[in-house]
User: Fold these one by one.
Assistant:
Number 1:
Amino acid sequence: MAGPEAGARTTRDDGPILPPPLRLELRGIRKVYPAVVANDGVDLAVAPGEIHAIVGENGAGKSTLMKVIYGMARPDAGEMLWNGREVRPRTPAEAQRMGVGMVFQHFALFDTLTVAENIALALPGRPKLEPLSRRIAEVAGRYGLPVDPRRRIGSMSVGERQRVEIIRALLQDPGLLIMDEPTSVLTPQAVESLFVTLRRLAADGCSILYISHKLEEVRALCSKATILRAGRVTGVCDPRAETAASMARMMIGADLKALRPAARQAPGAPLLVIDRLSAPSPDPFGTALHEVSLTVRAGEIVGVAGVSGNGQAELMDALSGERTSPPGTIRLDGRDLARMGPRARRRLGLSSAPEDRLGRSAAPDLPLHENALLTARAAQTTAWGFLRRAKIRAAARRIVEEFGVRAGGLDAPAGSLSGGNLQKFVIGREILNAPRALVVTQPTWGVDVGAALTIRQALAELRDRGAAVVVISEELDELMEISDRIAVIAGGRLTPAIPRAQCDRDAIGLAMSGRLDTPAAEQETADAAAH
Amino acid sequence: MPLRIERRPRPSRAMSWASPLIAAALTAAVAMILFALDGREPVSTLWIFLTTPLADLYGFGELLLKAAPLILIGVGLAIGFRAGVWNIGAEGQLVLGVIFGGWLALEFGGAGPWVMPAMLLAGGIGGALWAAVPALLRTRFNASEILTSLMLNYCAQLWLAYLVFGPWRDPAGFNFPQSAPLHPDALLPIVIENTRANIEIVIAVAAALVAWIFIERTHLGFQLRVTGAAPGAARYAGFPVRRAVWIGMLTGGFAAGVAGVGEIAGPLGQIFPTASAGYGYAAIIVAFLGRLHPAGIVPAGLLLALLAIAGDYAQMMLGMPSSIGGLFQGTLLFFLLAADVLTTWRIRRVEDAPLPATEAA
């Protein structure tokens, strides 16, 4: 418990005595990894048919706790009770036999196999495909998870794949279903239908552990929440009786700071222009870009929303210069950059920062100062092809100091930094190169709340200095917070960007599912439907 | 109380440098066991094995003579290995150096003092051209350079055999498969009197210095290191992977080609079908034993050369087969790879059964 507020809140807990035995109870779970104490005396009580949220920032110990329950990690101390009996699952198979099902954030499905084949692989024994398909259809119908057992995974959307994962877990008749950040890949509409499914499951007596850092969702769905911070429980509450702000306080141990409002000026002239860009995908299961057009003016942030796998990676590759494009399709201040590689584009003022920090926007094994050199301008860091090491170190030190990067010195390998600190370093490095246009994907992916705020603030300030900024993100909330205009990418096509004030979450959600051409046109139909 | 191997929070630098020493110690242990099994006194036999080659100045010269090609090729290969380019074809590239340099020597030997430097250059170009084949196949068709460069070794070997058995055979050589002796102008100068150590050791050490500066202090070297350490980051930064493949292959090939000339223009003095003593392969061990760092490759080359020479002496002095030197080289690589696991992993004793303890509490 952190402070009096937290203590007051926990009094709404049902108390230590519950009439029926708990479905799952953890007492004093402790798990130590070489570098970190991931769980430190965690208690958890889940009643039958309860939808229980596990809330916490990245690195708070949520995943480790789930691994302990699912038999993937053995706790160093503490005990686990299942329906009142002490258990110690040593493998996921043991946990499944006990009645624990889990749906992972990153799906484990074979693209080239059908739904039924994928599910058959996960079930014990060798189920025949025909009767299994009937069972799949039956479970799918009962819980509102429409899925065709004969379809191949490769042709399915992320939301559909998640349904397959859920059905696979349900076929084992679980008494507890663990959902790990299930909505991070879904459109708002798909989130709603997922919630309907989960409520139906809970009504049938299945307990659900719902792992999330999205507090609004937790409030809408869950009847109880256990909040973790730095491996310890900092609160147990009924989320319906809380505000997002009060839970955030328990989660981060301080009040959530809002983004400082910027001294906004009207956006200037068109700076970064994408003109009918089409590009095939190098990945057989990727998404080709079709006639993508977007104009970003100086001094504005344009958000590109969309469910992952709809062409974001291809768009990023095309803009960063990792793949070149047909002449004239990408222009910066009138200059054609489409045929240029990343270094030439950076020299002319177009920078990028993809979300994959470990191996793409940073080299994890190289020290921090060499990671500063990765995208530094040659004129300032080299002389006759030789490295000017003092200048490079000074540049790295400046990034570390200005963006509050916590690192074990400039010689520490980039991979030793936490996700948030490394991302601050990467974004800071690109911003200090003073780009005229910056393209970032998922800038706060896997980053703690404090670092996320720093990064968003830095992007807003870059915009205020007159740069054109494109943020490609799957987090609609984030885009709504920092974007001036929002476009939606779906199936490799991009809708026109519309001002944030005119954005309607439902309309964007529908556009994300690829059903309508533009959010604007969509909005009219949505409005019409409302009246 | 079982042992468990777990990942270190970050790779251990100390372990990275300690691992060659651990490997050397374990190899010495294996050597002593072998000597003991052969009915010899292990410690003194090992002492004789290792010190006899260095007993006099001539022996020291032999060590430098053998170490020079190992260091030279090892340094060239290491540049490629740092860039993630796996050139296993140094042996064939060395043979191409023999062919190119040898042609020049046979054709122009005695034409003037320019012949020797021209041979070194021609040999380097020959090796680089041979290495260009896998580089082209890799950049153009994405064919694994490990396989293509390895297979080209056999092609090069057969080409040289054809030349020495055919057009280049010495008419006065009693039909032996060997060329006419090279003209003295075509031979490398000796740097230590009364030994066979020639200028190649100076070239090799100079190459190590240049490589050190190149890889650590130039932007191009940095680009190669990024390409090897994180190919995705290299693409993102705009460091072309293809260029890294070309540079990595060509430097390795050039160095091997020069080393090939060093053999015919050095200790051999004429061209044999077996011009290489397996330096192209042994240099791979040297490169890794030296941590792919020029400063480590020089001592690693000396150590491997010592093992090779010691094998020869073992045959003469101890009556053991000379291949025992090669056996110890292989053992050394084996233990090195095993010890290298400990730079990213560590062994820890796990206290089992912590759960019952808490139950009692």
Number 2:
Amino acid sequence: MRKFLLPLLFLALFISESLFVQFMPEKVFGQSKILVPHFLYAGLLFFTIYVGKNKGIIYSAIFGLLFDIVYVEVLGIYLFLFPFIAYLVTKVMQVMQSNLIVSSIVSLAGVALLEIGVYEMNFLIHVTDLEFMDFINLRFYPTLILNAIFILLTGFLFKRYFEKVSEAMNDD
Amino acid sequence: MPQFFLNKRLIILLVSIIILVALIGFSLRERSKLTWPEQFVKDTTGWVQSLVSKPANSLAGFFENLQDLQNTYKENKELKTRVEKIASLEAEIQALKKDNEDLRDINGESKTLRDMDPSPATVIGRTPDRWHEMLIIDKGSLKGIKKNMAVVTANGLIGKVKSVNQFSSTVQLLSAMDPKNRISALIQSDTNVFGFVQGYDDKQKVLLVKGIPSGAKVEKGQTVITSGLGGVFPQGLLIGKVVDVKPDQYGLNQTALVKPGADFYDIENVLVIKRLMTQPETSDMSDGKEEDL
């Protein structure tokens, strides 16, 4: 049972992103900015930080592929970026302490990197023709604020749960 | 970072970049249908999503009802004044419909571009990274949904079916940027003016209707509907209202900025529209020389 809990948690985050966007009104606080939830990826980054590099990268690749197939229909973008940024995050965490504040900031930076990476890729394949400055104002800041709030709310839960998972894995 | 450039890692990075480019190239191709693993994964997650999103829909509906209650009195007053008008309008429509049918019978033309067959569907998901602007609906090819069918809400056209699986399908919204996404539109005025819906302005939240001849008179407030001449959509689906007109880059054509009638956010139920008039074959539309449309 406990084995299934981890994929189920990520699946729940995966679906919650879609639900969040589906029920969000056009204007939030009177401003029509674009808020992009990256709940799943924030969770995956915490998982990578607390459980380990290899498992984190494998999970990132699997859920990146799932994300590509189900939501985006362009294979490869998230399949590549999810594990790549997870790898960078493990490199950064090698020189830092993994306390709650540091890992929250690092995973928020990872989400920011993901958002920029996806923008650049979409710009390359002409899915968008948004200028970079417009992208920053219209999408980037609001998205970061949204995900910062999410990490603030759930960060310590993630930490506690993933530390438990990590211990259980070491015991096996 | 000297170890980053160790041989093994560099090779892994290069190989994954090659795979990335190959995969993107593969999926950006004009695909008539998704591969079966993709369809399988989409159907499976679609099933899970519909399990979750139906209770979520009813919960959201409950809160919406609560909000509606606040304005009930004011709305009721307004609606009462409209009801009287509607009764007379209905009578008029009945008479016109009958007239139209009789005249068609005389002419011997029974089918029109307007004939359509709507089937309802529920939205079970939406692309969270909001670049691609797609919805997932809970009806698939088993319920007769096909690629490129028009999708509308009560307030107007929102997009077309992009890909179909067995039990679910994906809808691409008009607000997505896709050069292949061209819809033949008709601006209703004294003389009908034709153009193409081609692109969406993210900042102003308006659709761009391009290719209107520069002599044509287009004014603010005129209604834009689908023309049915594109061969895929039926005629008469509401797109929106003109808010501004400006000449295009070279001054040969005009571009109308159209405020969409439908809200592209917070969509719960949609209608997938099947056109009853026969669809022309691609070979009939071009003479074989100009393949690149």
Number 3:
Amino acid sequence: MEDILNSIILLANFVIVPGMTYGSQLALGALGVTLIYGILRFSNFAHGETMAFGTMITIMVTWFMQSVGISFGPLPTALLALPFGAAAAVAIVLFSDRVVYKYYREKKSNAVFFLIASIGIMFVMNGIVRFIIGPKEQRFADGERFIIKAREFKQMTGLSEGLTIKMTQGLTVVITIIVVYALFRFLQHSKMGRAMRAYSDNEDLALLSGINPEKVVKITWAIAAVLATIAGVLYGLDKSFKPFTYFQLLLPIFAAAIVGGVGNPIGAILGGFVIAFSEVTVTYAYKKFLKYLAPEGMEPDSLMQLLSTDYKFAVSFIILVVVLLVRPTGILKGRVLE
Amino acid sequence: MTQTTKNFVYFAIMAGLLVAVGVIQSWSVSLSIFNLCLISAVMALGVNMQWGYAGLFNVGMMGFAAIGGVAAMLVSMPPVTAAWANGGGDLMMSGLMVVVTVLAIILILRKMPKGKKRNYTIAAAVIAGYFLIRHFYDPAVGAIESTEAAKYGYLGGLGMPILFSWIIGGLFAAGAAWLIGKISLGLRADYLAIATLGISEIVIAILKNEDWLTRGVKNVTGLPRPVPYEVDLQASEWFINLSATFGADPIEASSIFVKLCYTVLFMVVLGVILYLSERALNSPWGRMMRAIRDRRDAASAMGKDVKARHLQIFVIGSAVVGIAGAMLTTLDGQFTPGTYNPLRYTFLIWVMVIVGGSGNNWGAVLGGFVIWFLWVEAEPIGLFVMEVVTSGMDDGSALKAHLIESAAHMRMIMMGSILLLVMRFSPKGLMPEVVRHHD
């Protein structure tokens, strides 16, 4: 019995907790991608850079707050700085929409041109971020580090396996739940949210019923930028901030959005967790886990790892490709905000 | 000004810029830039075939360039016989198991009726195949990677002249493109983009982590060259005499001579590919491609096999990128999988094609030259600008140090701005596509 409990704790510690955290971060990122896709109808390649930009501003405000002695008790100071980062991300995204995307919208250009334009923005924002904060790794987490430590957990339960939950992991999940709840309340019940869904569903009909398209577009950009900043800050707190990593995050985020059904917010969340858990479960070495469960003398000698950790990113893409082939609309049917 | 004179002026300006770099910085720097301009032009031609002729949005260039690069390494390096002896047999067996598994799946697909039973059988075959492959693969990899790990730890290559690899690299890339195209070409534009971007990342992940094949991030250095080595030149009598007639220092002259040799080789490749591209674009085949790009349904209704043509151009374009990738690794003299990055190897090439003029081969070449030149020269220019900006500041100021240190990142901002400006104000690029009408 104890072996079974130990194996469950082991799995929780190395698969479930990291998977939940990473899944939440991907879900927030994918929600932004999916909203842009639903309203503006293109895949925004600059989304990873939006995350990096918002996070960078948050980090700088955090440093400022730390230097003047503002702190958030046991919670990271970055949470206090986050609104500033989000505001800056909203500002830069709205600016890019005004000077770049609006022109193509008015011309009713093909989606591919929006996509290429977003590659241009990606370059520019990538340069800005590296120019201001540099390409190096930055750590900015402070406050309490752990919610539960492995040693305390072992003492509490008397099991030989410990469970560690970092503060940033707990925060990520809690904040994601709050943000997602607020977003869905907004989409379902507010006038603007309904206008967005109508616009996403049928642009012409929405225009006929008097919805102001430019306003819908602006609100969408703003929400996507806020979500991107939250996702970026949570990821940065949990791991660390490095501009190139944020560029690479674009890939699993796209995968999450598409696997879930692009344009579908629930799908984006589902996709985030599907991608995160498949990355973690496929690259986890099950040797110790099986040792607890296998009968005496049957323990495995090898690591029992399906794929080496180096292929983490590849996993999300294999899933993406399979989904695109088997069910191109994603797990939940996508294409419009529902 | 007619377009022809304009084009002439563009290339003249480009030549002038390279000469200016030769005079101001040094001829060696100018030639290095020119060599990479030539390779960039080849890559841009490959992208132009896919995007310019056929409208395929492929952002997996990095993967094809890396496949070309690995071909250069595999063709030229001598085989490591000890590693083959230690792990070669098992590796062959695991390869055989891959083939067996694939054949079994094909057989099941052919012989069994559709339904749940078939799906379960396939799943069982995949799982059994996985364990069979791992059974041979794991010990093979262990044996190979532990063979003189510090020096080799991989299988080595074929020990053939590296110039062969330019063809082999193209063939490898074509093979990969065929497989990828089969899977992903049915997708809509932005899905195709994301799928190809992802697949190129997978290619890099494999090259970085399969140490038995590529030594991974430990890199393979010292690839044999197709041109003479500087030290040999400096020691040979005819070269010392030659440099004396020019009144040049033999050491500097040898470096320039080596670069010139590469220039000649690259120009031949670029010339051949450009000639063939021009012939293809102005043939009935080229017109068909553009018809498919502009009026897909109409072309399909006329009996053109859109899917097959897309696959064809995807394979050809990727092969050209693969050739360029092999050329690049040859020039570097080393294979470094850790240095492939999508901004430099995929998106920058796209900027070249769009700035040069999609659909126009000469435009792609021009774009390759201009953008590569700016990409390299952005650093000294950015540094210069920053030094002027900060000249009034105190020497010890942290801001000044930061601004000068960050000047290198100006190139990203510059590339993005160029792309956005060209798209907005000159969407057809510097040299627009030539469309001939017969009235």
Number 4:
Amino acid sequence: MKFGVVRFPGSCDEVDALLACRRFGDAELLWHGDRDLRGADAVVIPGGFSYGDYLRAGAIARFSPVMEAVAAFAADGGPVLGICNGFQVLCEAGLLPGALLPNTSLRFVCRQVDVVVENADTSFTRACARGDLLSIPGKHTTGRYHAPADDLDRIEANGQVVLRYAPGENPNGAEHDIAGVVNEAGNVMGLMPHPEHAVDPLTGSTDGGKLFESLAAREPVLA
Amino acid sequence: MKARVLIRPKEGILDPQGQTVERALPALGFHGASHVRIGRLVELELDDPEQLPAMCEKLLANPLIEDYEVELLDGGDSTNGAP
């Protein structure tokens, strides 16, 4: 199992993501100008401030050459995980439903949050059980998940809400307390909290490792 | 051709920046201002104004969360991206 972790100008969590992936498989960094994914079986779009978050968070990164390759990979069923800014990029690219808006508080939030696993039947959460509580750090200014009412109803009905902030834990005003969603096909996931920062007992929680472990357990679908 | 694109949060989307400004105004002695919404202004010069709607849809605005209005400044028409 080989992970590819995309590095954009302005990414800042790609090394932690790389190290998290390497606990469960091989991993290498991909550059935003790359046009192929160097044989990756799964792609991680990490957190940070790609292209300075100019215009809107994620709006410019979606036009980078590597995102064409990521979109084609996702269309073929390849697993793609977007974390924080990566979630914003995937929404802007139309690979995930909805959008991320500035936190209701307008403040940068940086703290450990509890999220509930709402759907354990995905490539990203198969190492969890439904109802599991994961303690993962969140750190963002633009994390308020929004989707038009019809879309929200649909993603709820389809089980596309994979992670939800536990009661009282919503750090950003996200609708329906949504912390992480998958696309309709189930092979693209985005979440605001940072599982890559919660893989070592030294930092207080290893719960984030469950997502990488789930992905590593997945049979590669692409040769 | 010069153009302006005015982008604002869609109706119904919480705009905490606008709310904060609305609360700050009375503190400075300005009363009676309500429904403050804060958006973004993009000014640009274009060879082909016909490309502007697609530019707005694909990059300048995110139609899921924002409405936009286009204003052509050299005597052209205005169009509105709101539904």
